[in-house]
Specification:
mainly alpha, 79% helix, 2 domains
Length: 209
């Protein structure tokens, strides 16, 4: 067991396999939905959406509640261990978690036939009356889209400059790197702020209406 648990690949892939088997067993075997049924794919997409969402928001909170506040406490000679090793790896899972969260969320909304209604904040369902559920889930979707845009087009490019990830910016001066790092931090902090109302919208739309 120690050999198994010591290898992250073993743990991750086995956990995914167990999750898929559980989904198939309870969706198809117990509930009786065939593989191609819309409910089966709703369950699969909802699980996937939550899974990759945890990866995204978990890393967002790691950066803002753990790494950034504690970096000033780390001696200068030890900081490269974070900036050259840990941060680039965390940014990888952070940005792809964001992309997959948006993708699975859009597919889930399409599967449930409310994608257009949500993106138009209920306006597409009835010109004279906007459904509260579509307004709430739509707010959550737009907040998530803004957050994902920040990740890919502001935070990630600026972190590449600040940390010289992949040695793409070896000639940048210290002032430019510092400015890029501050920009990335401010937009990461913005995403932290937006994540709270976004999660209220996402969870509330499924339970309140």
């Amino acid at each position: 067991m120690a050999v198994f648990l010591s290898n992250l690949r073993y743990v991750a892939w086995t956990a995914l396999a167990v999750g898929v088997l559980m989904l198939i067993y309870f969706a198809m075997g117990v509930a009786g939905y065939p593989f191609g049924d819309r409910v089966f794919w709703e369950a699969a997409l909802r699980w996937s959406h939550v899974l990759v969402g945890i990866m995204w928001i978990g890393h967002l909170y790691y950066f803002n509640f753990t790494q950034i506040p504690n970096m000033p406490k780390i001696p200068d000679e030890q900081k490269p261990a974070v900036t050259k090793v840990i941060a680039p790896a965390a940014l990888y899972w952070f940005r792809w978690g964001a992309a997959l969260t948006v993708l699975t969320g859009l597919l889930l909304a399409w599967n449930q036939n409310y994608l257009l209604e949500a993106l138009t904040l209920g306006g597409a369902s009835d010109p004279s009356f906007a459904a509260p559920k579509h307004i709430l889930i739509g707010i959550g979707m737009w907040l998530a889209l803004i957050m994902a845009f920040n990740v890919w087009f502001i935070i990630w490019p600026n972190q590449q400059k600040a940390l010289n990830i992949g040695n793409k910016y070896p000639d940048l001066d210290a002032a430019t790197k510092a400015a890029s790092g501050k920009t990335a931090m401010l937009f990461s902090r913005t995403n932290t702020f937006l994540s709270v109302p976004m999660l209220v919208a996402m969870t509330g739309a499924s339970t309140l209406f």
